[in-house]
Amino acid sequence: MIGLSHYLIFSTVLFGIGIFGMLSRRNAIAVLMSVELMLNAVNVNFVAINRFVTSGQAAGQLFSIFVIVVAAAEVSVGLALIISIYRHRKSVDLNNFDLLKW
Amino acid sequence: MEISLLGTEILLATLGFLALVTGLLPGRAKSITGSMSLAGLLLILVYTIAHFGEEASLFQGIYLVDNFAAYFKMLFLTATLLVSLGAGRYLERFENKKSEFYSLMVFATLGMVIMASAGDFITLYVGLELMTVSFYILTAFLLRDGLSTEAGLKYLVLGAASSAILLFGISLVMAYTGTTVIGATAARLMTEPAVVAGIVLLAAGFAFKISVIPFHMWTPDIYQGAPTPVTNYLSVASKAAAFAAMVRVFMVAVDAAPGLTLSWNLILAILAALTIIVGNLIALVQEDIKRLLAYSSIAQAGYILAGLAAANAYGLKGVLFYALLYVFCNTGAFIIATAVEVDSGSTAIEAFRGLSKRSPALAAIMTICLLSLAGIPPLAGFVGKFYLFAGAIQQGYLWLALIGLIMSMVSVYYYLNVSRVMYIEKAGKQEPVKGSGAFRLALWVCALAAIFLGCYPAPLSNLAQQAIQLFL
Fold first, then answer.
1. pLDDT per position as a tens digit, A52-88
2. Domains of chain A
3. CA of B164, closest CA in chain A: separation in Å?
4. Span B244-280, pLDDT tens digits
5. Mutation site for B-interface testing, chosen from A26, A37, A100 by largest number of B Cβ within 10 Å
6. Which long-range contacts (C-beta less than 8 Å, at least 24 apart) are formed by B161-164?
């Protein structure tokens, strides 16, 4: 029988993969995708919580919908920034963004 | 439900959209955006002060109107007003995008206001994101400047990751408590590994926003790259907002939980000590005024965190008191740094050479603000640190107060180094630094507040006492 803990373990693994990708990838788009993976791990948690803990009320699903909407806003700002940087430097490689001491 | 309870929020949202719309007016008519936004912010500030003392819990505890939230709302609005007034001639760099600048500032303020009032994690998250997404855009506002866009992208990547960490913490806590209302969480928290992990992740998410060591790496880069008024706003208001939310979450949910044995005070105290030490030490070697103020702001966050770690009447009062005086002192320093940057085109500390000859008033106010940040009596910073450290000692963290005291003395070195450059070194130029009337007004408000709050702290201290009453 699959329960809440299975989902929590699955989402923790997913979250870890997201963090690893964010830290190891050098392409700005890939980094944004890794952050999305982290947010989706959170969404898995909330949907599982809705099924196993708070069944009857929609708090978990509501939260995950908010997360999806806000993540969309965040990514649209992020992509706009990447395009504007690309126009100047002809690169989306984070290693080339070294004007500021990291 | 009384609609006037949400007056601040409704008026701020209206003002934000109005600023966007007036930006579309043709020709010179659009220049009313600035004065309209300032007048609007002033009115909203007056409205918020007039409604101090109202208590209500709206939508089954999702949104709280209380003294604590009202205090922080006043703080955010004061900061927005001072930063917008003090930006002065720097705004010319924004060319035809001034209305967007004001609008985004107002929306960021709205996000902070929502964070301070949030009684539930969903509301908290939405307010936090409204604030941070506005800040991503504001940080990258100078699109032709490589530094600014780079800072914007770095802030976005790290900010989004920190939100994800915060959310993961919330989801773990919710998995065991089954509720998102902060007030209802306390009774159901228990000592489970997953709950403890959730609380630690929550703390890490907040620590990122207030740039506590070891989550501070983004701060100097983003502070240096962002337009200077935005840096100013980021350093005072967004930190205060994160503190407001953090104090509420930790005092209402974690501290009051009967089933949870977790020495969260000690964790925060160790983080605060680390932050104070490392922030002050790295600030010693900085040669850029924005980076210097960035590391100084990290150290200041450490002092405030010490008050939260103490979690008693003195400590919490210190958090609120210090957050407000930090707005005045740091904004004063940043306004002058902005004016010098516009004048010389450089953000190096060297650019301050001979400022005492060129503009004696500016040099004097800069010195007052920096000394207040260092905590020299009779300026406001001393009183704030007194409350914070008194709280820490009362709670048994004598070592924390000692570290804070020693590192405050160390900080005098780098604050006074700026004064040394201003007063002793010779200037290249002789003419005074130019500034508008609004710029001077903001500056004098900051300087007088730094002196007045230091000599006569009682009124503000009483206000802070009323605001924290609900946690004691």
1. 988 778 888 999 999 999 999 999 999 999 999 898 8
2. 4-95 (1.10.287.3510)
3. 5
4. 999 999 999 888 888 888 888 999 999 999 999 999 9
5. A100
6. B161/A19, B161/A22, B161/A35, B161/A38, B162/B204, B162/B205, B162/B208, B162/B209, B162/B215, B163/A39, B163/A74, B163/B125, B163/B128, B163/B129, B163/B132, B163/B205, B164/A15, B164/A18, B164/A35, B164/A38, B164/A39, B164/A41, B164/A42
